[in-house]
Write a structure and sequence with these properties.
Layout (H helix, E strand, L loop, with lengths): L1 H21 L4 E7 L4 H5 L7 E3 L3 E7 L2 E6 L2 E3 L5 H16 L4 E7 L5 H5 L1 E2 L2 E2 L1 H15 L3 E12 L2 E4 L17 E4 L5 E4 L4 E3 L2 H21 L7 E12 L8 E8 L6 H4 L3 H25 L11 H5 L9 E8 L6 H14 L12
Helix pairs in contact: 1-3, 3-5
Bound molecules: adenosine-5'-diphosphate.
Adenosine-5'-diphosphate (ADP) binds next to helix 4.
Length: 359
């Protein structure tokens, strides 16, 4: 039975890879619906508003009125981390094949972005699996690769290096010491960002855990939850001695975005309000960039936020972009769910061409 299952999985893997290659430069948008927790099941949230199949999310707006949102893939509440990663693997392969890539998790706080990206020790998420996948692909390749790892967060519009301990530093104001440049080849370079050469998965995993700890420490000091910043991991891969490759260095960004809930609705005050506002602004800048790409505008407003400046060379041209939008089944969350689904819908059907990334 195991062999049959493995064969089926390999067949599905090949199918997914072919589907993915057919899409060329498109942004793919997946939606993951979070299961109701036991508490939610017992509460008045019983009338769960989201129903879905493998491509559609259906919202019951009122009795008899429904709206259907269509995505490249919808993960059901009972989908496993394995199911999710199986669909994401082609993006990892594309980095080895010479593309830049960006995978980001979007959604309201509490909808499972960190669960998808980081996962739990017993059910690892996209980040550890992607890194493992990259090393596996590199081992199987005939070329020699150098792999480098960086990790940062964007908090209140500033970049903070997560591989540098923040514990002893004052949290506010954060010096914007990491400068973003565009090099002669149009690649984004972040000056002073710690970038470490890594040789195996365990080494990267230790750095990743250190980054997560630094993020948590900084959050406690500034009395903010980690959902009030964007957490960004960059893995770059350099292949030397292969002139046929599109580029010598490619990179993948793995991004756990800050919670998308609208700050005015949360009744937050003080620092919480400012943090929420900063997240809202940068997510709206991300939406504007995506929308401008969709409209094939000559001007793409990458400069409007640090988030879009950093991701500039991974959101356009021939980069592979995957958005994982997360939604809740709770009736109380319905407004935010609709906002997230609308945002994700704007990102769909974008055909990114060579001429669309002028600034
Ligand atoms: P976010 O990062 O969007 O704020 P989290 O990833 O922290 O949300 O998820 C909130 C809680 O729900 C966590 O305890 C997490 O383990 C749990 N959770 C999220 N998604 C799932 C899922 N698909 N299956 C099981 N538990 C989940």
């Amino acid at each position: 039975a195991l062999t049959v299952e493995a064969n089926e999985q390999n067949k599905r893997r090949r199918q997914i890879l072919n589907e993915f290659l057919d899409l060329k430069g498109n942004i793919r948008v997946f939606c993951r619906v979070k299961p109701l927790s036991p508490v939610d099941k017992d509460s008045k949230n019983l009338r769960a508003p989201v129903a879905s199949d493998t491509r559609n999310v259906i919202i019951k707006l009122t009795e008899g009125k429904r709206k259907t949102y269509n995505f490249d893939k919808v993960f059901q509440p009972d989908s496993s981390q394995d199911d999710v990663f199986l669909e994401i693997e082609p993006v990892i392969k594309s980095v080895i094949d010479g593309y830049n890539a960006c995978i980001f998790a979007y959604g309201q706080t509490g909808t499972g972005k960190t669960f998808t990206m980081e996962g739990l020790p017993e059910s690892p998420g996209v980040v550890p699996r992607a890194i493992k996948g990259l090393f596996k692909q590199v081992e199987q390749s005939n070329h020699t690769f150098v792999i480098k790892f960086s990790m940062l967060e964007i908090y209140m519009g500033n970049l903070r290096d997560l591989l540098v301990s923040q514990a002893t530093k004052p949290i506010s104001p954060i010096p914007p010491s990491l400068l973003i440049h565009t090099d002669a080849k149009g690649e984004i370079d972040i000056e002073n960002l710690v970038t470490l050469k890594v040789s195996d998965f365990d080494q990267v995993f230790k750095l990743y855990k250190l980054g997560c700890r630094n993020r948590a420490t900084a959050s406690t000091n500034s009395n903010s939850a980690s959902s009030r910043s964007h957490c960004m991991i960059r893995v770059s891969i350099t292949c030397t001695g292969a002139p046929e490759r599109r580029r010598e260095t490619n990179k993948i960004w793995l991004v756990d975005l800050g919670g998308s809930e609208r700050v005015l609705k949360t009744k937050a005050t003080g620092r919480r309000f400012d943090e929420g506002k900063a997240i809202n602004l940068s997510l709206s800048a991300l939406g504007d960039v995506i929308n401008s790409l969709q409209r094939k505008n000559a001007h793409i407003p990458y400069r409007n936020s640090k988030l879009t400046q950093v991701l500039k060379d991974s959101l356009g041209k021939d980069s592979k972009t995957l958005m994982l939008v997360h939604v809740s089944r709770k009736e109380d969350d319905l407004c935010e769910t609709i906002c997230s689904l609308n945002f994700a819908t704007r990102a769909k059907n974008i055909h990114l061409g060579q001429d669309q990334t002028k600034e």
